[in-house]
C-alpha cells in the first residue's frame, strides 16, 4: 500500500465525525463496548484489557457545525468542550458506553460533571493523575486510582481484568508506542519523506482504530514512506508546541509546512507517546503503569514541574535531539495550561538562544493567510541567521 | 434609598476590627526583614493557615494582593505590564496582576515593600491555574517550594484514597518544608489549638451567612459576604482575632435582626428588600462599589452566594476538627467549592435557592476564570429547570477593568429584575 492510500484512509477517518470505524468495531461482535476519552492521557491498557475500545475524542474540528454547543459556553472558553458537547448532543457519541475526562485543566474537569448532568445514564468519570512524583506518595495514590478505574471498567464491560490480560495489553501498547516513536524519529531524520500533515493524520487514526489495527497501519506507512522518493526542500526545522488538547485545523498544520518549515517534533495526541519507555510486562501491571507515569512520562503544560531547573527542559531537549532551529508556540485561544506556561517556555528558549514565535488558533480557524505569513517570515529569518 | 447622598463609609465595630487585623498583618509581612519572621506565600482555596501559623510563619496570599490592587484601581496597569511581558490576554487576571505587581516593586497596601517569600506553598485546590501561577512565582522568587496536590472530587465524594493522599503529602512534604523554613519542630498540639479556634469562628460565620434565610435579610451574602469571609479565608483562620471578629459580627447582625434592618451598604442601611437572589461566581473587584450599587439601588439583596464558599464550605457542617487535625485539613481542602464537581455545585445552588427563598439565580461569569466559568450556562439552565425561578447571566472580570462594562451590566440587571417581577405576577395568578 502506498503512503497516499494509507493517508487517504486516515483522512477519511479524520473527517468522519460520526466515528463510523469505531461503530463498526463495536457492531462486529455482540457485547462489545467503547470508552471515549479526552486529552491528554489515560492508561488505555485498562480499557483494552477489559476487551473494550478506547476512543480518543479530540473535539469536532473544523468540519463540525457547532449549533447547540455554543449555548453551553461563553465566548471566552476554548472550542473543544463546545464541539464535544455538540458531538454528544447530536447523537454522534450515542454508541459510546463510557467517557473519561482526564486531569488536564478546569474546562475538561468541569466538562466531566456536565457530561454527568447531560447523560445521567452513561458512565462518566474524571480521571485524576498525580502531580507528586514520589512512589510512596503520588505513586500509591495513582495505583489506587487505576485500581478504581479497573474495577469500573470490569463493571462496564462485564469482563474481569486479570493481571495477565493487563500485562498483555501493556505489551501491545508497548509495541504501539515504539512504532509511534519510530514514525517521529523517521520524520526527524528525513522530514521530506514524512510530512507533518501525514504524521498528524496517521496519529489521529490511532484515536479511533483498535490498537492492533493501528500497529499494522504504522508499520505499513513506514515501509511505504521509506520506499517513496520525495524531493528535499530547503525548509527549516521547527518544533510546534502547545497543541496537546484542542487540535488545530489540518490546514494550519499544512500551512506551517507550506511556509517552509519541517516540523520535527510536536505535541499533538500525546496519549500515543505519553509513556516514553517500554513498560515492564512482568510483575504487577498497575504498579508498572504507575512507575512509568511517575518516572518516564512526557512533560506537558498539564503537568506540574517539580523543580525550577526542569521547567521547559523537555522542549529544550527536544530542540537539541531533533536539531530544531526554532519553536512555534501554537496554542488554542483561551487554553489556560498552554498559555500560562508559554512565558516560561519562551524564557527557556530565549535563555538558550532558540528563536521562537507564537500564535493562537481555534479548531475551526478558517483564515490561514496570517499564519502562513508569520510562519514564513519566521522560516526566512531562521534560514537567514543559521 | 437616596442615591444622591454622597457615599460615606459607615463602619461597625467588626469592620474596624477587620481593618485593624488586615493592617496588622500587612505590617507584620512588610516588617518581616526587621523582625526576622519568615513568610509563606500560598493561595486562598485550601489554605493551611492553622498549620502555617503553628510554625510561627506569616501567610501572604497573592490573590488577596490582586484583589486589593483591583479595589484600589491599580490592577489594570499591572495586568497590562504583565501582558507586555509576554503573558496572554486570555489567562487569569489574578496571575497577571500579581506578576505586574512584582514589576512595580511589590508594594503592599501599606505603602511598604513586600519582602520575597521564604517558602512558596502551593496547596492547589479547585483550579489548575494555581499550579502554573506557582511555577511562574517560583521563577521570580527562586525560593524553597512545596506542593500539595488536592485531588478533584470528580464523583462528588471524598474518597479514602484522596484523603490519604493529602494527609501523606502533609506529613511527608508540607510539614518538613514548614519545619525547614521556620526552624521550628512540628507541634501537633499547637495545630489542634489553632483548629479549635477555627471551628469556633466558623460556627459564627455560618450563623451570620444563614441569617440571610430571614425574609428581610439582615445581610448581603455576596457584596457584604466578601467582607465577612475575609478573616476566615485569609491569614486569620485559627487566631483569637478571628474568633473575636466573628463574635462582634454576629452580635451586630443579631441586633440588625432585632431592629428589623436589612443589609448595610456603603451608603448606609438598605431600603426595602424587593428581590432575593443567589449569586454564583466571584465579584468584579475593579468596580466593586458600582456593581453593588446596581443591586441595592433596585432593592436586590443577595441571600446566598457560592463565592463565599471558595475558601471553604462551612454551611454544610464541615468544621476544622482538632481531634483529627491532618485528616480534617485534608477534608477542608477537598471540600472547597470549586473542588466540587458540577452536579454538586448545582445541588448546592438549588439548595440555596430553596432554603433562602430566592427569587432567582444570577451568575457573574468571570472572563478569565475557567474554574468557575466553564459550565455556568448549563448550571443556570439546570437551576431554572429545577426551581422554576429565572436565571440571569452577566459577564465581567476579576481585576481587569477593561472587562467591566457598567452600562451593559446595568441593562442586564434591570431587565432581569423586570423578569423576576413578571414571573412573580404570573405565579401569583396561577396560585
Ligand atoms: S484547549 Fe486548553 S483550556 Fe481548552 S480544554 Fe483543552 S487544555 Fe483545557
Ligand atoms: S482561574 Fe479562577 S480560581 Fe483559578 S486562580 Fe484564577 S481566579 Fe482563582
UniProtKB/TrEMBL annotation, chain B:
Family to which the UniProt record says this protein belongs: Belongs to the FldB/FldC dehydratase alpha/beta subunit family.
Name assigned to this protein: Benzoyl-CoA reductase subunit B
Gene Ontology molecular function: any one: iron-sulfur cluster binding
Entries under Pfam families matching the protein: HGD-D
Keywords, sorted A to Z: Iron, Iron-sulfur, Metal-binding
Domain of life: Bacteria
Species for this entry: Sedimenticola selenatireducens
Classification via InterPro entries: Benzoyl_CoA_Rdtase_B, FldB/FldC_alpha/beta
The organism's taxonomic lineage, starting at the top: Bacteria, Pseudomonadati, Pseudomonadota, Gammaproteobacteria, Chromatiales
Amino acid at each position: 500500500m502506498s503512503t497516499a492510500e494509507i493517508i487517504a484512509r486516515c483522512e477519511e477517518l479524520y473527517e468522519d465525525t460520526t466515528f463510523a470505524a469505531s461503530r463498526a468495531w463495536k457492531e462486529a461482535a455482540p457485547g462489545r463496548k467503547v470508552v471515549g476519552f479526552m486529552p491528554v492521557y489515560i492508561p488505555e491498557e485498562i480499557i483494552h484489557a477489559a476487551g473494550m475500545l478506547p476512543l480518543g475524542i479530540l473535539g469536532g474540528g473544523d468540519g463540525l457545525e457547532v449549533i447547540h454547543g455554543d449555548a453551553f459556553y461563553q465566548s471566552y472558553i476554548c472550542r473543544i468542550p463546545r464541539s464535544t458537547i455538540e458531538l454528544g448532543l447530536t447523537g454522534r457519541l450515542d454508541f459510546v458506553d463510557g467517557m473519561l475526562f482526564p486531569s488536564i485543566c478546569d474546562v475538561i474537569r468541569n466538562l466531566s460533571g456536565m457530561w454527568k448532568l447531560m447523560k445521567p445514564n452513561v458512565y462518566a468519570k474524571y480521571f485524576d493523575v498525580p502531580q507528586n512524583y514520589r512512589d510512596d506518595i503520588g505513586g500509591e495514590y495513582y495505583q489506587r486510582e487505576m485500581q478504581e478505574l479497573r474495577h469500573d471498567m470490569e463493571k462496564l464491560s462485564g469482563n474481569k481484568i486479570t493481571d495477565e490480560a493487563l500485562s498483555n495489553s501493556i505489551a501491545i501498547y508497548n509495541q504501539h508506542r515504539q512504532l509511534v516513536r519510530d514514525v517521529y524519529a523517521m520524520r526527524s531524520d528525513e522530514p521530506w519523506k514524512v510530512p507533518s500533515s501525514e504524521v498528524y493524520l496517521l496519529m489521529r487514526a490511532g484515536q479511533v482504530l483498535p490498537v492492533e489495527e493501528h500497529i499494522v497501519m504504522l508499520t505499513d506507512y513506514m515501509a511505504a514512506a521509506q520506499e517513496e522518493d520525495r524531493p528535499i526542500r530547503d525548509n527549516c526545522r521547527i518544533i510546534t508546541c502547545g497543541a496537546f488538547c484542542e487540535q488545530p485545523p489540518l490546514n494550519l498544520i499544512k500551512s506551517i509546512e507550506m511556509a517552509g518549515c519541517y516540523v520535527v517534533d510536536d505535541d499533538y495526541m500525546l496519549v500515543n507517546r505519553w509513556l516514553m519507555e517500554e513498560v515492564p510486562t512482568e510483575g504487577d501491571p498497575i504498579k508498572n503503569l504507575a512507575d512509568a507515569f511517575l518516572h518516564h512520562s512526557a512533560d506537558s503544560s498539564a503537568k506540574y514541574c517539580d523543580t525550577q531547573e526542569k521547567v521547559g527542559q523537555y522542549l529544550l531537549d527536544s530542540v537539541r535531539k531533533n536539531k530544531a532551529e526554532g519553536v512555534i508556540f501554537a496554542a488554542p485561544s483561551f487554553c489556560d495550561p498552554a498559555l500560562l506556561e508559554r512565558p516560561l517556555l519562551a524564557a527557556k528558549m530565549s535563555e538558550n538562544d532558540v528563536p521562537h514565535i507564537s500564535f493562537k488558533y481555534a479548531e475551526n480557524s478558517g483564515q490561514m493567510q496570517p499564519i502562513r505569513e508569520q510562519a514564513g517570515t519566521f522560516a526566512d529569518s531562521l534560514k537567514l541567521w543559521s | 434609598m437616596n442615591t444622591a447622598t454622597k457615599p460615606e463609609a459607615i463602619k461597625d465595630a467588626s469592620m474596624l476590627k477587620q481593618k485593624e487585623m488586615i493592617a496588622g498583618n500587612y505590617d507584620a509581612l512588610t516588617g518581616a526583614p526587621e523582625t526576622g519572621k519568615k513568610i509563606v506565600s500560598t493561595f486562598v482555596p485550601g489554605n493551611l493557615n492553622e498549620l502555617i501559623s503553628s510554625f510561627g510563619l506569616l501567610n501572604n496570599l497573592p490573590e488577596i494582593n490582586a484583589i486589593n490592587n483591583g479595589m484600589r484601581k491599580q490592577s489594570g496597569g499591572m495586568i497590562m505590564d504583565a501582558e507586555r511581558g509576554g503573558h496572554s490576554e486570555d489567562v487569569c487576571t489574578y496571575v497577571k496582576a500579581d506578576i505586574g505587581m512584582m514589576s512595580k516593586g511589590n508594594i503592599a497596601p501599606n505603602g511598604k515593600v513586600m519582602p520575597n517569600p521564604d517558602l512558596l506553598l502551593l496547596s492547589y485546590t479547585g483550579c489548575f491555574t494555581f499550579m502554573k501561577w506557582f511555577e511562574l512565582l517560583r521563577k521570580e522568587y527562586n525560593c524553597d517550594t512545596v506542593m500539595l496536590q488536592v485531588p478533584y472530587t470528580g464523583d462528588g465524594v471524598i474518597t479514602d484514597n484522596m484523603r490519604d493522599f493529602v494527609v501523606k503529602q502533609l506529613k511527608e512534604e508540607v510539614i518538613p518544608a514548614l519545619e525547614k523554613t521556620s526552624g521550628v519542630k512540628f507541634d501537633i498540639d499547637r495545630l489542634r489549638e489553632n483548629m479549635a479556634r477555627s471551628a469556633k469562628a466558623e460556627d459564627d460565620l455560618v450563623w451570620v451567612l444563614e441569617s440571610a434565610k430571614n425574609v428581610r435579610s439582615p445581610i448581603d451574602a455576596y457584596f457584604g459576604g466578601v467582607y465577612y469571609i475575609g478573616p476566615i479565608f485569609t491569614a486569620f483562620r485559627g487566631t483569637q482575632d478571628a474568633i473575636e471578629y466573628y463574635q462582634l459580627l454576629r452580635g451586630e447582625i443579631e441586633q440588625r435582626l432585632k431592629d428589623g434592618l436589612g443589609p448595610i451598604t456603603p451608603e448606609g442601611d438598605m431600603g426595602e428588600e424587593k428581590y432575593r437572589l443567589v449569586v454564583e461566581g466571584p465579584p468584579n473587584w475593579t468596580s466593586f462599589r458600582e456593581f453593588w450599587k446596581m443591586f441595592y439601588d433596585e432593592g436586590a439583596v443577595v441571600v446566598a452566594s457560592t463565592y463565599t464558599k471558595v475558601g471553604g464550605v462551612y454551611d454544610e457542617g464541615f468544621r476544622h476538627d482538632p481531634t483529627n487535625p491532618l485528616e480534617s485539613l485534608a477534608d477542608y481542602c477537598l471540600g472547597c467549592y470549586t473542588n466540587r464537581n458540577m452536579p454538586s455545585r448545582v445541588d448546592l445552588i438549588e439548595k440555596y435557592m430553596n432554603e433562602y427563598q430566592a427569587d432567582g439565580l444570577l451568575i457573574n461569569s468571570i472572563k478569565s476564570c475557567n474554574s468557575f466559568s466553564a459550565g455556568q450556562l448549563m448550571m443556570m439552565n439546570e437551576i431554572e429547570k429545577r426551581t422554576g425561578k429565572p436565571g440571569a447571566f452577566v459577564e465581567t472580570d476579576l481585576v481587569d477593568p477593561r472587562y467591566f462594562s457598567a452600562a451593559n451590566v446595568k441593562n442586564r440587571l434591570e431587565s432581569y429584575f423586570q423578569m423576576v417581577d413578571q414571573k412573580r405576577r404570573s405565579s401569583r395568578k396561577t396560585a
